[in-house]
Write a structure and sequence with these properties.
The complex is a heterodimer. Chain A is mainly α. Chain A has helices spanning 9-12, 19-30, 54-57, 76-90, 94-103, 108-114, 127-140, 144-150, 156-193, 206-212, 241-249, 265-273, 285-293, 296-344, 354-367, 371-378, 383-393, 399-410, 422-444, 450-467; strands at 64-68, 219-220, 227-228, 232-234, 237-239. Chain A is built from 20 helices and five strands. By secondary structure, chain B is of the alpha/beta class. The radius of gyration of chain B is 22 Å and the shape is globular. Chain A: Residues 188-203 have a biased composition (Polar residues).
Chain lengths: 468, 491
């Protein structure tokens, strides 16, 4: 890439790297074509460092337009309300609404009163435009230059913008597509078993009427989705006549159903496979009639209102999900706090909690009179605490028996428990279940019970160890 | 000087037109990803936490601060409908295949470069801590050549702007591709250190060998970290953190530019690394901790849903804001299915970068960095005379009548003064419209009342005290840096 232009602006001035440096390195660069090139045609001219008093800095030209700056005078809640209002009343998006607020120097009242004066233009894409775009896109593809030839009044920027939004929606409908297909397949199987009659609610979808013709008792082919009265049963699902012939002739081949691309064929696909709306979707009969009977403007209004509703519900879902996520995070954090604080700084508290009593009893069973070891395991009691505990509860919890047991274990001799020891055994058995109960519970549940789980696990381990 | 001492002042540069440029059918580079990022930022509520700027379109004069006149003239005149007249030049400037001629090509370059230059100017004015331009980061563009989807090198232009007020500028590149355009532009200077982490070996653009270390005065001021396929978060951190720590120690830059190319993420259409959004964002977090004037730009990234996830997260990191893993509903919500989450999981691809390999690279680079003189001084003889002329040119363009009030409004002394800044940069209320106003026309917008207030502000300015305040602030930032460094070493 030798650039031999002599009038390079950057080459004219005095350059930071004298030419002898370039020559110096020249032989280095030759050895490999894919090396960084050195020379006046490749390097940038480094500007002089300006050591200026601070105020000169401030004189630098502004090179950008400030459209929003954060403020601390308006609470988050109020800001959200403002954005919502400007959106619902005047169709602003949040960026435009914030721009307006900033223009009025964060004066909420002024901005609110001014909103009406600058309501953004409604989307300038008419239904015809959208249809033209779709059919153009289906036949041409993503060649916006050629699409523009079919839609000369739209700048390419606008086409690209619409394309990305529309692509989004198309994906949406393909989800429904899949769902509809799935439902159709399920239904076909059910029909095969004779467990279910054809749906009677087919008239709920106006598109279906075209395909269905007069009857609603027809069944759909599992391959091409065509509605027919006679279905041939095959190992690969029930099929219409054409598909069945193909199936027989090709020894079990499925008839390819993807035809040449037609404009709007995605609509047909949706309709063809759909007899019932997907689960959870309800169609208002009045709205449908309005759409079908009145000129398209009214129908569009109903549809766009429903669309808006869907969007706002989705917004709500996502923000709820975010809240849930935040709460879950909080729970986890709380657990970690607890976990960390326990081993690092075990606070010695004189009061005995039930858990601690149980721990102490288990400790004695395990370590005998080694109070130091028990105190270390517990962490929340000192050696002296345990000594007084032993003295105090010796009789009540039959601690001596435990120590006996401990000694017996030590000697590796097994002492058969007599009937008299029942009481002691009951104490021993009482302890583990009460400790392990939360564990089993929490294993079934999740969420808030997580706390129980994590709190009980260390103890559960100890009791398990003690039981050995 | 700043209102909130603990939070960084973040400025964000975005032009709503930038998403509308289209490279061509099947081309992996999609400016639309910048709009997707923007939409996520808006719906996450991060938008309202930053200063939002609409950058001016960089002029040909600004772009020729780096690029050759001829090349810029060519970019300005070429269009899809007159391509055939330019066959020879297209070949010479490498425009046509990877870098196609598309509708609005020149404007796209202007917006991308305008954002980075404006961001650099903002940092020079010291009225922001972090500036973000996701529309920039086109690091392959050469002085007189397009390359790798890049036409105008906004990063070089931004760094040149920073160099007017910063002795040393550090450039870090975490794109999966080598940042060859920036490295080449500053290959022979010791005032810019370029550090690039990239896949090397039978991969575009082919440069970025470990042994490429700069030339002439710039020897040892180019740092290349060649990596293999499948880099994961842990390996990346294990090499990024020690090298950047060392570079900061030895080079001691006064400003940092980070190219956040998102093609190093897992599942990228062109990339071959296995980073998650978190791992990628950690680099931003780490660099941010040094508290230096910080310019973040975009770059590569060809699985656009992940690109917008990544840059949204990194904007949140810059702001120091926590954002939920669940994505908010947005205009392009369906792109993020099926999970609609912010964070992504790595794939099960194997990491072909052995620990020993990374260790070897690291030690080799440490050896090179040891060759640096500790914090190089000003190279007085290297100062080109013509850049002085450029600077005075800038000032001559300013209407002398405007100069005083403007310079005063820029000074941020009391929080109250924050708003006065808006008055001359404010946008026209025509929502969605409102072109940039130059200094001349702004004057007609400002009502007389405000003019009076600005004048009264002038009386209150106490110059020496102002400087002292600034020094204190710098001292603080230095001390906090030290503690940060220690923390990072521990971790």
């Amino acid at each position: 890439m030798a650039n031999d232009n002599s009038d390079l602006k950057n080459g004219n001035g005095k350059r930071p790297a004298p030419s002898d440096i370039a020559a110096d390195i020249d032989d280095l660069i030759q050895e490999n074509a894919e090396k960084i090139r050195v020379g006046r045609d490749y390097q940038a001219v480094i500007p002089k460092l300006l050591v200026l008093p601070t105020h000169r800095r401030e004189r630098l030209n502004k090179k950008a337009l400030l459209v929003w700056a954060p403020t601390e005078n308006i609470s988050e809640v109020k800001l959200n309300e403002y954005i919502l209002l400007s959106k619902e009343k005047y169709g602003y998006n949040s960026e435009q609404a914030l721009g307006m607020l900033y223009w009025h120097h964060h004066d909420m009242d002024k901005a609110l009163s001014d909103l009406a004066n600058f309501a953004p233009l409604p989307d300038d894409w008419t239904t015809e435009d959208k249809l033209t775009f779709e059919s153009a896109f289906n036949s041409i593809g993503k060649n916006f230059l050629r699409i523009k030839q079919m839609m000369p009044d739209k700048p390419i920027a606008s086409l690209v913008k619409y394309y990305y939004l529309w692509k989004n929606k198309r994906k949406k409908s393909s989800v429904i597509d899949r769902q509809a297909k799935k439902l159709a397949n399920v239904r076909a199987n059910e029909n095969q078993n004779g467990s279910r009659e054809g749906s009677s609610s087919a008239e709920s979808d106006p598109d279906d009427k075209k395909d269905l013709g007069e009857g609603s008792s027809k069944q759909s082919c599992s391959v091409c989705g065509v509605f027919v009265t006679m279905l041939q049963q095959t190992p690969k699902g029930s099929m219409c006549g054409t598909c069945y012939t193909h199936f027989r002739r090709t020894n079990g081949g499925i008839r390819p159903t993807l035809g040449p691309p037609r404009p709007n064929n995605r609509h047909l696909n949706v309709a063809r496979n759909k007899r019932l709306p997907p689960r959870g979707m309800y169609v208002n009969h009045d709205d449908l009639q309005a759409i079908a009977s009145s000129p398209d403007a009214k129908g569009d209004n109903i549809l766009s209102a429903v669309d808006d509703e869907v969007v706002s519900l989705k917004c709500k879902i996502q923000s709820n999900k975010q809240d849930i996520g935040q709460l879950q995070k909080k729970i986890k954090l709380n657990i970690n706090e607890y976990r960390n604080s326990e081993p690092i700084s075990p606070r010695i508290v004189p009061r005995w909690s039930n858990d601690e009593i149980m721990l102490a009893i288990e400790g004695i069973r395990r370590y005998g009179k080694d109070f130091k070891a028990i105190a270390e395991t517990m962490g929340t009691k000192s050696q002296t605490h345990l000594k007084t505990f032993y003295a105090q509860y010796r009789k009540r919890y039959k601690l001596d028996d435990l120590i006996k047991q401990y000694r017996a274990d030590q000697c590796n001799t097994i002492i058969e428990l007599s009937d008299d020891d029942d009481e002691q055994v009951s104490i021993k058995e009482e302890a583990p279940p009460s400790v392990s109960r939360p564990t089993t519970l929490s294993s079934m549940a999740s969420g808030t019970r997580l706390i129980n789980l994590s709190l009980s696990t260390p103890k559960a381990h100890q009791t398990a160890a003690a039981a050995k | 000087m700043s209102i909130t001492p603990f939070k960084k002042r973040v400025c964000y540069y975005y032009d709503s037109d930038i998403g509308n440029y289209y490279y061509g059918q099947g081309h992996p580079m999609k400016p639309h990803r910048i709009r997707m990022t923007h939409n996520l930022l808006l719906n996450y509520g991060l938008y309202r936490k930053m200063e939002i700027y609409r950058p001016h379109k960089a002029t040909a004069e600004e772009m020729t601060k780096f690029h050759s006149d001829e090349y810029i003239r060519f970019l300005r005149s070429i269009r899809p409908d007159n391509m055939n007249d330019y066959n020879k030049q297209m070949q010479r400037f490498n425009v046509g295949e990877d870098c196609p001629v598309f509708d609005g090509l020149y404007e796209f370059c202007q917006l991308s470069a305008g954002g980075s230059v404006a961001a650099a100017v903002k940092l020079n004015k010291q009225s922001a801590d972090i500036c973000i331009n996701w529309g920039g980061g086109l690091h392959h563009a050469k002085k007189s050549e397009a390359s790798g989807f890049c036409y105008v090198n906004d990063i070089v232009l931004g760094i040149l702007e920073l160099l007017k007020y910063h002795q040393r500028v550090l450039y870090i590149d975490i794109d999966v591709h080598h940042g060859d355009g920036v490295e080449e532009a500053f290959y022979t200077t010791d005032r810019v250190m370029t550090v690039s982490f990239h896949k090397y070996g039978e991969y575009f653009p082919g440069t970025g060998d470990l042994r490429d270390i700069g030339a002439g005065k710039g020897k040892y001021y180019a740092v290349n970290i060649p990596l293999r396929d499948g880099m994961d978060d842990d390996s990346y951190e294990s090499i990024f953190v020690p090298i950047i720590t060392k570079v900061m120690e030895t080079f001691q830059p006064s400003a940092v530019v980070l190219q956040c190319g998102a093609d190093s993420l897992t599942g990228d259409r062109l990339g071959c690394f296995n980073l998650t959004v978190k791992g990628h964002g950690k680099c931003v977090e780490f660099v941010k901790r040094y508290g230096l004037p910080f310019l973040m730009v975009g770059g590569g990234g060809y699985t656009i849903r992940n690109v917008s996830r990544c840059w949204t997260y990194e904007t949140a990191v810059a702001l120091g804001a926590e954002i939920a893993n669940e994505l908010p509903y947005n205009d392009y919500f369906e792109y993020f299915g099926p999970d609609f989450k912010l964070h992504i999981s790595p794939s099960n691809m194997s990491n072909t970068n052995a620990t020993e390999y990374l260790e070897k690279i690291k030690n080799r680079l440490f050896e090179n960095l040891r060759m640096l003189p500790h914090a190089p001084g000003v190279q007085v003889q290297a100062i080109p005379e013509d850049s002085v002329r450029h600077e005075s040119d800038d000032e001559d363009n300013v209407n002398p009548d405007d100069r005083n009030p403007q310079s005063i409004t820029d000074k941020r002394i009391a929080p109250d003064n924050e708003f006065s800044d808006s008055e001359d940069e404010g946008m026209a209320p025509g929502v969605g419209g409102g072109g940039r106003k130059d200094n001349r026309s702004y004057k007609t917008v400002v009502p007389a009342r405000k003019q009076a207030r600005l004048d009264s502000n002038r009386m209150e300015i106490d110059e020496p005290e102002f400087n002292i305040l600034k020094d204190e602030k710098e001292d603080k930032s230095v001390s906090s840096d030290d503690s940060n460094k220690k923390d990072s070493v521990k971790s």
